[in-house]
Design a protein that fits this description.
The complex is a heterodimer.
Chain A: H1 2-16, H2 54-63, H3 65-70, H4 78-91, H5 94-98, H6 101-110, H7 126-141, H8 152-156, H9 159-172, H10 182-200, H11 204-208, H12 211-217, E1 225-229, H13 239-243, H14 267-271, E2 277-282, E3 289-292
Antiparallel strand pairs in A: 1-2, 2-3
Helix pairs in contact in A: 1-6, 2-7, 6-10, 7-12, 9-10
Chain B: H1 5-22, H2 25-33
Classes of the chains: A mainly alpha, B mainly alpha.
Protein backbone atom coordinates (compact mmCIF):
# COMPACT_ATOMS: atom_id res chain seq x y z
CA UNK A 1 0.00 0.00 0.00
CA UNK A 2 2.90 2.35 0.72
CA UNK A 3 4.14 2.07 -2.87
CA UNK A 4 0.63 2.72 -4.14
CA UNK A 5 0.39 5.79 -1.89
CA UNK A 6 3.67 7.15 -3.24
CA UNK A 7 2.41 6.57 -6.77
CA UNK A 8 -0.80 8.48 -5.98
CA UNK A 9 1.27 11.28 -4.41
CA UNK A 10 3.42 11.59 -7.54
CA UNK A 11 0.42 11.55 -9.90
CA UNK A 12 -1.36 14.06 -7.68
CA UNK A 13 1.67 16.37 -7.56
CA UNK A 14 1.79 16.24 -11.35
CA UNK A 15 -1.93 16.97 -11.67
CA UNK A 16 -1.54 19.86 -9.25
CA UNK A 17 1.19 21.32 -11.45
CA UNK A 18 0.40 20.02 -14.92
CA UNK A 19 0.63 23.25 -16.92
CA UNK A 20 3.66 22.49 -19.01
CA UNK A 21 3.63 25.35 -21.55
CA UNK A 22 4.90 28.26 -19.50
CA UNK A 23 6.22 31.44 -21.10
CA UNK A 24 7.45 34.65 -19.44
CA UNK A 25 4.73 36.58 -21.28
CA UNK A 26 2.04 34.26 -19.89
CA UNK A 27 3.40 33.22 -16.50
CA UNK A 28 0.17 32.01 -14.90
CA UNK A 29 -2.73 29.78 -15.96
CA UNK A 30 -6.01 31.68 -16.40
CA UNK A 31 -8.38 28.91 -17.46
CA UNK A 32 -11.58 27.60 -15.87
CA UNK A 33 -9.88 25.10 -13.52
CA UNK A 34 -8.78 28.06 -11.39
CA UNK A 35 -12.36 28.18 -10.08
CA UNK A 36 -11.67 24.92 -8.20
CA UNK A 37 -9.55 24.56 -5.06
CA UNK A 38 -6.96 21.76 -5.06
CA UNK A 39 -7.18 19.67 -1.85
CA UNK A 40 -3.60 20.26 -0.79
CA UNK A 41 -1.01 22.96 -0.22
CA UNK A 42 -0.22 24.11 -3.75
CA UNK A 43 0.29 27.82 -4.49
CA UNK A 44 -2.02 29.23 -7.16
CA UNK A 45 0.60 31.74 -8.19
CA UNK A 46 2.80 28.83 -9.26
CA UNK A 47 3.24 29.09 -13.05
CA UNK A 48 2.47 25.37 -13.44
CA UNK A 49 -0.62 25.26 -11.22
CA UNK A 50 -4.01 25.08 -12.97
CA UNK A 51 -6.00 25.01 -9.69
CA UNK A 52 -6.75 27.48 -6.91
CA UNK A 53 -5.21 27.16 -3.43
CA UNK A 54 -7.87 26.63 -0.73
CA UNK A 55 -5.85 28.53 1.88
CA UNK A 56 -5.21 31.47 -0.44
CA UNK A 57 -8.90 31.55 -1.35
CA UNK A 58 -9.95 31.41 2.32
CA UNK A 59 -7.60 34.20 3.34
CA UNK A 60 -8.74 36.38 0.47
CA UNK A 61 -12.33 35.78 1.53
CA UNK A 62 -11.66 37.05 5.02
CA UNK A 63 -9.29 39.80 3.89
CA UNK A 64 -11.96 41.29 1.61
CA UNK A 65 -14.99 40.59 3.80
CA UNK A 66 -15.18 44.02 5.46
CA UNK A 67 -14.72 45.92 2.20
CA UNK A 68 -17.21 43.61 0.48
CA UNK A 69 -19.83 44.16 3.17
CA UNK A 70 -19.34 47.91 2.91
CA UNK A 71 -19.87 47.66 -0.85
CA UNK A 72 -22.96 45.51 -0.39
CA UNK A 73 -21.50 42.36 -1.94
CA UNK A 74 -19.54 40.02 0.26
CA UNK A 75 -18.01 36.65 -0.47
CA UNK A 76 -18.36 34.87 2.88
CA UNK A 77 -16.44 31.75 1.87
CA UNK A 78 -19.33 29.29 1.60
CA UNK A 79 -17.99 27.79 -1.61
CA UNK A 80 -14.45 27.21 -0.32
CA UNK A 81 -15.52 26.03 3.14
CA UNK A 82 -18.22 23.83 1.60
CA UNK A 83 -15.91 22.14 -0.89
CA UNK A 84 -13.21 21.58 1.73
CA UNK A 85 -15.84 20.31 4.17
CA UNK A 86 -17.20 17.80 1.64
CA UNK A 87 -13.73 16.33 1.14
CA UNK A 88 -13.02 16.31 4.88
CA UNK A 89 -16.37 14.69 5.69
CA UNK A 90 -15.58 11.84 3.34
CA UNK A 91 -11.96 11.05 4.17
CA UNK A 92 -10.78 13.41 6.93
CA UNK A 93 -7.13 14.34 6.59
CA UNK A 94 -6.40 11.76 3.89
CA UNK A 95 -5.55 14.44 1.25
CA UNK A 96 -2.45 15.32 3.34
CA UNK A 97 -1.11 11.79 3.09
CA UNK A 98 -2.12 11.11 -0.50
CA UNK A 99 -2.59 14.29 -2.56
CA UNK A 100 -0.60 17.18 -1.06
CA UNK A 101 2.44 18.07 -3.21
CA UNK A 102 4.20 19.73 -0.28
CA UNK A 103 3.64 16.56 1.75
CA UNK A 104 5.35 14.58 -1.00
CA UNK A 105 8.31 16.97 -0.98
CA UNK A 106 8.69 16.47 2.78
CA UNK A 107 8.39 12.68 2.42
CA UNK A 108 11.14 12.67 -0.22
CA UNK A 109 13.42 14.92 1.84
CA UNK A 110 13.05 12.58 4.82
CA UNK A 111 14.44 9.74 2.71
CA UNK A 112 17.85 11.47 2.69
CA UNK A 113 20.14 9.43 4.89
CA UNK A 114 21.09 11.73 7.74
CA UNK A 115 20.67 11.26 11.52
CA UNK A 116 17.00 11.68 12.47
CA UNK A 117 15.47 13.75 15.27
CA UNK A 118 12.08 13.17 16.93
CA UNK A 119 9.43 15.85 16.59
CA UNK A 120 8.88 17.87 19.76
CA UNK A 121 5.15 17.30 20.34
CA UNK A 122 4.24 20.72 21.87
CA UNK A 123 5.14 22.29 18.51
CA UNK A 124 1.96 20.80 17.07
CA UNK A 125 0.10 23.70 18.73
CA UNK A 126 1.55 25.84 15.95
CA UNK A 127 -1.09 24.47 13.60
CA UNK A 128 -3.85 26.03 15.71
CA UNK A 129 -2.07 29.40 15.82
CA UNK A 130 -1.54 29.21 12.09
CA UNK A 131 -5.20 28.45 11.34
CA UNK A 132 -6.85 30.77 13.83
CA UNK A 133 -4.50 33.74 13.53
CA UNK A 134 -3.03 33.67 10.03
CA UNK A 135 -6.00 32.30 8.09
CA UNK A 136 -9.03 33.69 9.96
CA UNK A 137 -8.35 36.39 12.55
CA UNK A 138 -5.58 38.61 11.16
CA UNK A 139 -6.90 38.85 7.55
CA UNK A 140 -10.33 39.68 8.97
CA UNK A 141 -9.38 42.07 11.76
CA UNK A 142 -6.31 43.99 10.58
CA UNK A 143 -7.49 46.01 7.60
CA UNK A 144 -6.36 49.18 5.86
CA UNK A 145 -8.42 52.35 5.41
CA UNK A 146 -10.28 50.78 2.48
CA UNK A 147 -11.23 47.77 4.58
CA UNK A 148 -8.86 45.29 2.91
CA UNK A 149 -6.78 42.89 4.97
CA UNK A 150 -3.73 40.85 4.02
CA UNK A 151 -3.13 37.20 3.29
CA UNK A 152 -0.96 36.69 6.36
CA UNK A 153 -0.23 33.00 5.95
CA UNK A 154 0.81 33.36 2.28
CA UNK A 155 2.79 36.52 2.88
CA UNK A 156 4.70 35.64 6.03
CA UNK A 157 4.81 31.86 6.38
CA UNK A 158 3.84 29.63 3.44
CA UNK A 159 6.99 27.81 2.26
CA UNK A 160 5.07 26.23 -0.64
CA UNK A 161 4.42 29.69 -2.08
CA UNK A 162 8.12 30.58 -1.95
CA UNK A 163 9.14 27.27 -3.51
CA UNK A 164 6.42 26.95 -6.16
CA UNK A 165 5.73 30.58 -7.03
CA UNK A 166 8.31 33.04 -5.61
CA UNK A 167 11.45 31.29 -6.87
CA UNK A 168 10.10 30.23 -10.32
CA UNK A 169 8.70 33.71 -11.01
CA UNK A 170 12.04 35.30 -10.10
CA UNK A 171 13.80 32.92 -12.49
CA UNK A 172 11.29 33.58 -15.29
CA UNK A 173 10.96 37.36 -14.86
CA UNK A 174 14.25 39.19 -14.29
CA UNK A 175 12.40 42.50 -13.88
CA UNK A 176 10.90 41.18 -10.63
CA UNK A 177 14.31 40.74 -9.02
CA UNK A 178 14.55 44.44 -8.19
CA UNK A 179 11.46 44.03 -6.00
CA UNK A 180 13.09 41.42 -3.78
CA UNK A 181 13.51 42.64 -0.22
CA UNK A 182 13.69 41.52 3.38
CA UNK A 183 10.28 39.86 3.18
CA UNK A 184 11.45 37.52 0.46
CA UNK A 185 14.66 36.67 2.31
CA UNK A 186 12.71 35.95 5.49
CA UNK A 187 10.41 33.63 3.52
CA UNK A 188 13.43 32.01 1.92
CA UNK A 189 14.80 31.42 5.43
CA UNK A 190 11.49 29.80 6.46
CA UNK A 191 11.55 27.57 3.37
CA UNK A 192 15.18 26.60 4.09
CA UNK A 193 14.28 25.83 7.70
CA UNK A 194 11.49 23.47 6.66
CA UNK A 195 13.64 21.83 3.95
CA UNK A 196 16.47 21.13 6.40
CA UNK A 197 14.03 20.12 9.14
CA UNK A 198 12.29 17.72 6.73
CA UNK A 199 15.51 15.80 6.22
CA UNK A 200 15.81 15.02 9.94
CA UNK A 201 12.16 14.94 11.07
CA UNK A 202 9.31 13.51 9.07
CA UNK A 203 6.67 16.00 7.88
CA UNK A 204 7.58 18.94 10.16
CA UNK A 205 5.47 21.49 8.31
CA UNK A 206 2.36 19.27 8.43
CA UNK A 207 2.89 18.70 12.14
CA UNK A 208 3.90 22.17 13.28
CA UNK A 209 2.37 24.74 10.98
CA UNK A 210 -0.09 23.52 8.35
CA UNK A 211 -3.53 25.10 8.80
CA UNK A 212 -5.04 23.10 5.91
CA UNK A 213 -4.02 19.83 7.56
CA UNK A 214 -5.65 20.95 10.80
CA UNK A 215 -8.81 21.97 8.94
CA UNK A 216 -9.05 18.51 7.38
CA UNK A 217 -7.90 16.80 10.59
CA UNK A 218 -10.73 18.26 12.67
CA UNK A 219 -13.01 15.96 10.68
CA UNK A 220 -10.97 12.78 11.29
CA UNK A 221 -13.28 11.67 14.10
CA UNK A 222 -16.51 12.20 12.19
CA UNK A 223 -15.53 11.43 8.60
CA UNK A 224 -17.02 8.63 6.52
CA UNK A 225 -13.64 6.86 6.49
CA UNK A 226 -12.06 6.31 9.90
CA UNK A 227 -9.49 4.14 11.59
CA UNK A 228 -10.34 1.85 14.49
CA UNK A 229 -7.98 0.49 17.14
CA UNK A 230 -8.80 -2.79 18.87
CA UNK A 231 -6.89 -2.87 22.16
CA UNK A 232 -7.70 -6.59 22.69
CA UNK A 233 -5.73 -7.73 19.64
CA UNK A 234 -2.84 -5.29 20.18
CA UNK A 235 0.40 -7.19 20.84
CA UNK A 236 2.13 -4.14 22.39
CA UNK A 237 4.92 -4.11 19.82
CA UNK A 238 4.47 -0.34 19.24
CA UNK A 239 5.36 -0.75 15.56
CA UNK A 240 2.47 1.60 14.73
CA UNK A 241 3.99 4.37 16.81
CA UNK A 242 7.44 3.88 15.31
CA UNK A 243 6.27 4.09 11.71
CA UNK A 244 3.58 6.77 12.08
CA UNK A 245 4.78 9.80 10.07
CA UNK A 246 2.90 12.26 12.27
CA UNK A 247 3.56 10.63 15.65
CA UNK A 248 0.03 9.56 16.58
CA UNK A 249 0.60 7.57 19.80
CA UNK A 250 -2.69 5.67 19.97
CA UNK A 251 -1.33 2.33 21.22
CA UNK A 252 -0.12 3.93 24.45
CA UNK A 253 -3.33 5.94 24.76
CA UNK A 254 -1.69 9.36 24.40
CA UNK A 255 -3.65 10.10 21.22
CA UNK A 256 -6.87 8.97 19.64
CA UNK A 257 -6.29 6.91 16.50
CA UNK A 258 -8.43 9.48 14.65
CA UNK A 259 -6.47 12.39 16.09
CA UNK A 260 -6.23 15.61 14.04
CA UNK A 261 -2.59 14.63 13.42
CA UNK A 262 -3.41 11.45 11.46
CA UNK A 263 -2.84 11.90 7.72
CA UNK A 264 -4.47 8.55 6.87
CA UNK A 265 -1.39 7.03 5.25
CA UNK A 266 -2.57 3.62 6.61
CA UNK A 267 0.96 2.53 7.51
CA UNK A 268 -0.30 1.36 10.92
CA UNK A 269 -3.08 -0.65 9.29
CA UNK A 270 -0.63 -2.34 6.92
CA UNK A 271 2.14 -3.06 9.42
CA UNK A 272 0.23 -4.00 12.59
CA UNK A 273 1.24 -7.62 13.29
CA UNK A 274 -1.77 -8.23 15.51
CA UNK A 275 -4.34 -6.79 13.14
CA UNK A 276 -5.42 -4.33 15.82
CA UNK A 277 -5.95 -1.47 13.36
CA UNK A 278 -8.85 -1.56 10.95
CA UNK A 279 -10.34 0.82 8.41
CA UNK A 280 -13.93 1.74 9.11
CA UNK A 281 -16.50 3.06 6.62
CA UNK A 282 -19.76 4.56 7.75
CA UNK A 283 -22.40 3.53 5.25
CA UNK A 284 -23.91 6.82 4.11
CA UNK A 285 -27.17 5.28 2.96
CA UNK A 286 -27.88 2.83 5.80
CA UNK A 287 -26.14 4.52 8.71
CA UNK A 288 -24.31 1.29 9.53
CA UNK A 289 -20.58 0.94 10.01
CA UNK A 290 -18.59 -1.51 7.97
CA UNK A 291 -15.06 -2.51 8.88
CA UNK A 292 -12.07 -3.65 6.89
CA UNK A 293 -10.56 -5.66 9.72
CA UNK A 294 -6.84 -5.53 10.10
CA UNK A 295 -5.15 -8.91 9.81
CA UNK A 296 -1.76 -10.38 10.40
CA UNK A 297 -1.07 -11.13 6.76
CA UNK A 298 1.58 -10.09 4.29
CA UNK A 299 -0.95 -9.66 1.49
CA UNK A 300 -1.77 -6.17 2.81
CA UNK A 301 1.80 -5.10 2.36
CA UNK A 302 1.79 -5.59 -1.40
CA UNK B 1 -24.38 0.73 15.15
CA UNK B 2 -25.92 3.90 13.73
CA UNK B 3 -23.77 6.78 12.65
CA UNK B 4 -25.40 9.48 10.60
CA UNK B 5 -22.88 12.26 11.33
CA UNK B 6 -20.91 11.87 8.06
CA UNK B 7 -24.15 11.95 6.06
CA UNK B 8 -25.50 15.06 7.79
CA UNK B 9 -22.16 16.84 7.56
CA UNK B 10 -21.76 15.92 3.91
CA UNK B 11 -25.24 17.26 3.08
CA UNK B 12 -24.50 20.41 5.09
CA UNK B 13 -21.27 21.10 3.21
CA UNK B 14 -22.92 20.26 -0.12
CA UNK B 15 -25.52 22.91 0.68
CA UNK B 16 -22.81 25.42 1.61
CA UNK B 17 -21.08 24.73 -1.70
CA UNK B 18 -24.29 25.09 -3.71
CA UNK B 19 -25.24 28.34 -1.94
CA UNK B 20 -21.68 29.62 -2.48
CA UNK B 21 -21.90 28.81 -6.19
CA UNK B 22 -25.31 30.49 -6.39
CA UNK B 23 -23.83 33.61 -4.80
CA UNK B 24 -21.09 33.68 -7.42
CA UNK B 25 -18.23 32.94 -5.04
CA UNK B 26 -16.25 30.78 -7.52
CA UNK B 27 -15.78 33.92 -9.63
CA UNK B 28 -14.06 35.62 -6.68
CA UNK B 29 -11.84 32.56 -6.17
CA UNK B 30 -11.03 32.63 -9.89
CA UNK B 31 -10.23 36.35 -9.95
CA UNK B 32 -7.76 35.98 -7.09
CA UNK B 33 -6.26 32.79 -8.50
CA UNK B 34 -5.43 34.26 -11.92
CA UNK B 35 -3.71 37.30 -10.44
CA UNK B 36 -0.15 37.00 -9.24
CA UNK B 37 -0.08 38.74 -5.87
CA UNK B 38 3.62 39.49 -5.51
CA UNK B 39 3.46 40.54 -1.88
CA UNK B 40 1.53 37.32 -1.14
CA UNK B 41 4.51 35.27 -2.28
CA UNK B 42 7.05 37.45 -0.55
CA UNK B 43 8.13 39.66 -3.47
CA UNK B 44 7.58 43.39 -3.22
Amino acid sequence: MERFRHLVQIVSAFLANCRLWITPSNPIYKGPLKHICFPGLNCYSCPAAPWACPLGALQNTFATLKAGLAAGKANIGLYVLGSLGMMATLVGRMPCGWFCPFGLIQDLLFKIRVPKIDFWRPLSCGRYLSLVLLIFALPLLIVDNSGFGQTWFCKYLCPAGTLEAGLPLLVMSPELRSAVGMLFFSKLAILSLFIIWSTVTIRPFCRAACPLGLLFGIFNKVSWLRLKFNQRTCVDCHACELICPTGVLFATGKDDINSTKCIRCFRCYVLCPGGAVSIEFSSIMKGDIQDLEGCNCNSKQG
Amino acid sequence: MKNHKPLFLFIFFCLLTVVGIALGEPKDVFQKAITICLSCIGIG
